[in-house]
Each structure stands twice: as structure tokens, then as C-alpha cells.
Amino acid sequence: MKTAITLEELRSARAMLPEPVGFVPTMGYLHAGHISLVERARQECTSVVVSIFVNPTQFGPHEDFAKYPRDLPRDFAQLQAAGVDLVWTPTPEIMYPPDFQTWVIVERLTAPLEGAHRPGHFRGVTTVVAKLFNAVQPQKAYFGQKDAQQAAVIRQMTRDLNYPIEIVVCPTVREADGVAMSSRNTYLNPEERRAATVLFRALNAAKFAYEQGEREAETLRRIMREVIESEPLARLQYVSCADFETLEELEWVEGKALLSMAVFIGQTRLIDNLILE
Ligand code: PAF
What we know:
The chain has ten helices and nine strands. By secondary structure, the chain is α/β, with parallel strands linked by helices. The strands form two sheets. The chain has a six-stranded parallel sheet, sandwiched between helices. The chain has a three-stranded antiparallel sheet with strand order 7-8-9. β3, α3 and β4 form a beta-alpha-beta unit.
């Protein structure tokens, strides 16, 4: 496995890789969810590139950038075992030199849900992903369904900016009790970790109602709210039952829909979602 830090190192290592190249952008502190993306890329592409960069511009001023977990030696060992060809770990100075002033903004799709509660978050995500795409020039890029809005926004950006890259969205990987894998789960103490199961329980309660024939979106949102409110350690930020493509809130579920939520468990903000189809 080759490693690169500077853009020059990345470009010369990338030039040696047989195509198609599959790319998995990450912020490190890898878990089974990331490794599932690498494995999918490994199956579908001749070469696999992974980036590890905790992107400061996608964190709000009061968010967890400073304390975001980092462990490069552990990440490298996992990526080596997964058969990755090249790992790129740029520094903040490489990605954002002092005179940096160009941003990529996807407009409508970033307005609701995460965008409404994390101002500037998606501007940071799309800008860094565009820069990563420009440098790595992959044929395919892999993202998790866990960050459903991020996947939709990146797909839109890829279309709008004519990147010749196929965006592949892979299923959420869950722990045995249903909690979605996330680097942020490491913030939870044992009691909070138990309480974190409430997100998947709430999503499943709404999905069950949908499967029983319930089609009123507000009823599905109410079911999710009630389950979250039954957990004393949980504080709901939002629940949503939205159109899968536009992410606009629905009145009635007719086509494919996205159930999603953000919930604080103690100080830790967790998100999760399920698709209704
Ligand atoms: O999903 C993530 O880990 C990040 O948002 C990404 C796509 C690597 C951009 O920093």
C-alpha cells in the first residue's frame, strides 16, 4: 500500500494505478462501515484509493472538529488489510492554503434536514469532495447511505459539475443492536450507547406502520417522535419523512421516501435514516 501526503506525491502515485480507480473519501477513525465501502470498491475497480482528512470547513464553530477521533496507525493497518492501493492524508494547509477563497455550493438540496441544522456544513463537504475528486480523478466514488443527504448532495454536485465519476451509495452498516456505525459512537458512555438504539427503534416503528399501510407522513413523523421522547437520554433535533429525490417533507408517502432524524444522546449528535419503497 502506497501513502501520499502532498498533492505531488498523490498525483505521481495515482498516475501509476491501473484503471478503473475506485475512491473512498473518509475522515479516518475507520470502522466496519468504511471498510464495507473499500470492499465494494475492491470488487468493482482495479485500484482503490482512500483519503483520510478531517475536513475543518464542514464543522460548525461549536461542533466537534477538535475532538473528532483520529488514529492514523490503526486506520493504515485496516486499509492495508483491506487491500487498498493508495492512501492520501493531506494536511489542512494543503487543502486550504492561506489565500483559499473558492467554494462549491449545491443550493436547494442542502436547505432542509442536516443543512438546516448545520449551517455551512454542506458547503464544506462539497468543496472538499470536489477538491478530492479533482486530485484523485477516480472513475467511481463510494459513500454510505448513513449520510443520506450527503450522498444526494454529492450526486447532484457530480452531475452539475460534469464529473465523469459514478457515485455508488452503499447500505448502512449496523452494530448487532441496530445502532448505525459512526466514528462519533466512540463519544458515548455505556449508558448513552444503550440509549442510542432509540434511533433505529424509532425508524423501525415508522417503517412497521408504513408496512401496515400507513401513508400519512405526519403520522410516521409522530411515531418516530414518540419513540425518541420515550428515551430519557435522547433529545430530538428533527424527524423527517421526505421525498427520496428532493428531500422535501411529504404529506403522503406515494413513491420512494426517506425517514431520517438527528438526535442528541447526551452531548453527542447522531443521525440515522431508513428508506421506504
Ligand atoms: O462522510 C465523510 O466522512 C465526510 O463528509 C467526507 C465525505 C469524507 C468529506 O469530508
